[in-house]
UniProtKB/TrEMBL annotation:
Domain YjeF C-terminal residues, every copy: 210-488
InterPro entries in UniProt: CARKD, Nnr, Ribokinase-like, YjeF_N_dom, YjeF_N_dom_sf
NCBIfam families, per database record: yjeF_cterm, yjeF_nterm
Classification via PANTHER family: ATP-DEPENDENT (S)-NAD(P)H-HYDRATE DEHYDRATASE (PTHR12592:SF0), ATP-DEPENDENT (S)-NAD(P)H-HYDRATE DEHYDRATASE FAMILY MEMBER (PTHR12592)
Principal EC category: lyase
Keywords, alphabetical: ATP-binding, Isomerase, Lyase, Metal-binding, Multifunctional enzyme, NAD, NADP, Nucleotide-binding, Potassium
GO terms (BP aspect): metabolite repair; nicotinamide nucleotide metabolic process
Self-association and partners: Homotetramer.
Domain of life according to the entry: Bacteria
UniProt-recorded name of the protein: ADP-dependent (S)-NAD(P)H-hydrate dehydratase
Amino acid sequence: MIIDSRGMRQLEASSGFTNAQLMETAGKACADWISSHFSACRNILLLCGKGNNGGDGFVIGRILGSAFHVTAACVDGAPATKEAQDAFTLLSCDVLQDPDAILQAAQHTDLLVDCVYGVGFHGTLSARMKKLFSSINNMHLHVCSIDINSGAESDSGRYDPDAIRSDVTIALDCYKPFHMLRKDHQLFKHAYMVSLGIPHPDHSAFLEMNEDSFFAGYPRKKENAYKGTFGKTTVIGGSYGMAGALGMNIIGAKTVGVSYLNAVCPHEIYPVVASRFLTPVFHPFGDQDMYRVIEPLLYDTRAIAFGSGAVNMPKKEEILDLVLQAADCPVVLDAEAIRLLNHNYYILRFVHEPVILTPHIGEFSSLINRPVDVIQHDRIHLALQFAKDYKVFLVLKGPHTIVASPTGDLYINQSGCSGLAQAGSGDLLTGMIAGLLTMNNDVFQAVCMAVWLHGYLAEEGTKDHAANMLDLSRFPALADSLYFRHGF
Ligand SMILES: NC(=O)C1=CN([C@@H]2O[C@H](COP(=O)(O)OP(=O)(O)OC[C@H]3O[C@@H](n4cnc5c(N)ncnc54)[C@H](OP(=O)(O)O)[C@@H]3O)[C@@H](O)[C@H]2O)[C@@H](O)CC1
Ligand SMILES: Nc1ncnc2c1ncn2[C@@H]1O[C@H](COP(=O)(O)OP(=O)(O)O)[C@@H](O)[C@H]1O
């Protein structure tokens, strides 16, 4: 289960255990994990802070002291919580406080255990702590962080550049958003979770997605199915110079198994795209007949995607208005459609059907008029806020794509690889989202399924190929292997 710091505190409070019991359990679970995974170590140095994360460190030190040579360091003053103070009094190893002595001890340690800050950390490191942490990071020691790498925030994943870097981070009881954002911060190589035996609720605001949950939401075609069983999917995209974007939408829809696809595009790219794809029903349009061609389609489709490669599309502003006003199904807005919303995205509040926006970070930056680096450091919060304020599903794309729902549900995607960092892969995702929205009425689930599958197939596609050579046109074939393995 993934949970934020507030949820974790609520879980602790309702667990039936006292804070001291939880600290003892946490310290013991971490000490056991360290003993079994770092059994070859002799000297262990514990860096402890003044909060309960430091308290966990004192428990770990007491337990490991029977088998290892342990030294503890109080790097941020005396323990400040009752539980940490009690754990400290039971510690019998050497305790260092002087920064020079701590750095000297670090040079002789086989393993450094980082228990300075856990979920209680917020903001930036003090100058003193930055100096200590950067010296430690430069020593390239074996490091194990407890719960959260010190200097990083649990809920936002924001981190100080001098935050402790570890080989392993042991999450206590649940993964926190920080653990789900590894590709962004790269503060640890591996994360493991130890259980504290706290009962978990059935529902968390964080959705998790894997092969099993994907297939739980992916419908099977019955024997008596016909082409319209799941309804139609409509993609409106491409324009002169960007015909391929509509092609990628089509490949995306094929990847998720869409059985009736309307492909709507300007006249000038129709022959190019139609000669490449045989199964979509094409609806070419121009300046004069845009309404006549597009409007009827909007009433006879289960999902619409608009915007991929639409930079040079005639009447694109009018199409956006038409789609938002007339559609009676979920609408995915990608690329150019998002750019058209810059400065007037308040209109999203008046749309009755679910709207899914799929910006990458640059597009989101232009949309909300905030610098990219501000968004990068606060992606979860800003995505949730936007989704709630404008009642949309926001797919903020990146190495860990975030999906935020208007009601505060969140998904932090774990699948994918750098092979996806190429032009066209967002258009592919848009087609996959529209296709899965046609097959699954739960908008949040369908969108998260598409995001997960997109990343998963990229991983599959780079298993026997160079990551920078990922061929996006292979996605339907890669998906076919997956579905076949699951008995489809
Ligand atoms: N999950 C569980 O079930 C269990 C969790 N447990 C453990 O408790 C941990 C949470 O403990 P915690 O709440 O005491 O906070 P912790 O992370 O030790 O640090 C807070 C201290 O740091 C300070 N501080 C913050 N930011 C700072 C900054 N920028 N620069 C300088 N100082 C800063 C902050 O000060 P303040 O916020 O008051 O200003 C406070 O003094 C959790 O991660 C886990 O390890 C187990 O013991 C039991 C079971
Ligand atoms: N390093 C990466 N790891 C995993 N996924 C990535 C990475 N870089 C990009 N992606 C994914 O690739 C897609 C790129 O989309 P986008 O930038 O809109 O491309 P385009 O508009 O050119 O089609 C997104 O789904 C994003 O999450």
